[in-house]
Structures are given as structure tokens and as C-alpha cells.
Amino acid sequence: MDAKRILNYLKQLMTNNNRDWYLANKAEYDTIRADFEEGVKLAIGRIAGFDPSIAHLRVKDCTYRFNRDTRFSNDKSPYKNHLGAYIAAHGKKALHGGYYLHLEPGHCMVACGNYWLPTNILTSCRNEIMANTDEWLKCVENKMFQKYFGSPQASSFKTPTDVSSWDQPQGFGLEKLKSCPSGFPRDWVHIEYLRMKDYCCWHQVSDDFYQGDKWLDEIESMFKTAKPMMDFINSVIDDYE
Q1: Lesser CB count within 10 Å: N end or C end of the chain?
Q2: Phi-psi region of 56 (alpha: psi -120 to 50; beta: other; left: phi over 0)
Q3: pLDDT for 5-34, tens place per residue?
Q4: By C-alpha distance, which of 47, 85, 222 is closest to 149?
Q5: Structural domain total, the chain
């Protein structure tokens, strides 16, 4: 994948985000879009090697429209400033977690897991974590998981807003409760996992990460590392879908 060319186009778009410029440069968009989609196709093939549940997916099942939905936004820019693909066995809109690739100037990323979970499912996930704590800790407190996504501890969850950000170099859990969820023991030793409102982990990468084809080896390592955590949570979610 020619990430340099893709990101160069997106950089130009960010300062010329209007329909006239887009149409004048439509040929370049078509070129970089085709290149990105070929990369997604390769990623699906690589991930399917260790997760056959996503082998049936086509590129169009995983990618998004380039046009922004501006109906409820103060920002009326018509186009996105990134390209992303969500490779999820049950589809892009399902709660069942998946694997995410993101190309954006200065904010390229790899992510995996589940987010925006309803309260009833979160409660079930928390119960499952408490009932199978040793299994859960093996998924999220091993050296490789901590290397790629960090090691969330109770102290790191005491931020003013209790909200993390994709802009952080790495992370596990975007949002969390300010205190222990109702009905759970406040003094549980691993309370940081009960306070989480999602089970998504991410790792920021450099702008040249997706250049060429070596990135396929890197995402395979990252996704293999995150998969046991995601499988643990998906086993709960699948009871509801």
C-alpha cells in the first residue's frame, strides 16, 4: 500500500474540504481509494489465517463512505479526513467486536475490540470478568498485550473526565465510570475492569507504518495479541445478538 500517497491526498483534502476540490481531484481519490481497498483485502486474508470467522467478508463489508454525515454536526465539511476499515465477523454495525485499520495524517492507528455496549451487556461482561478473573487477566495482563496496548490500573482511571482518547499512543478502554458500577463490590482488587464502559484497545502507529507490505506482519501480531480479550467479551455479547 502506498501510504505516503494516500496520506498526502488526505492532507490536501484537510485544507480543501469542499466539493469543487474533491471533484477536481476525483481521479486521485479513485486511485488512493483503490489502493487502500486492496490493502484491506490483504488484511482480511491475513486475519482470516488466525480468525476464520471473518474469512467471508468482502472489502465493501468493512469500509465506509467517504462522505460525512453532517446533519447533526456543526462541522459541515463534506468529506472525511481519514480512511478506515472495520473487519468484524458480524458486520460493521454489530456489537460483536472486530479489527480496525485507520489511516489519517498524524493519527494512523490499529485497534481491536468492542465499544458502545449497552448497559445490560456491560453488566454481563463485568459478571463474566469477576467469575473468570484468571482467564481475563491472562488475556489483558500478559507482556505482549501490555506492550501494544498498555496496562490499565486503577490509578490511571482517575482522570478528570474519565475519558481516554484515540490520540493517546496506546490504550485500553475509551470511557469508564467515575466509580464502581451499581451492584458490584467497590473493594474488588481489579475494579478498573468493572469501571470500563467499552473493551476496545488501540495502538497509534507512524504515518509510514502502512507503507509497503510489512505492516501486514505487524497487524497480525497486534491482532493476535488482542484477540483473546475480544473473544472473551464476544462470548458474552453473542448471547444477546
Answers
A1: C
A2: alpha
A3: 999 999 999 999 999 999 999 999 999 999
A4: 222
A5: 1
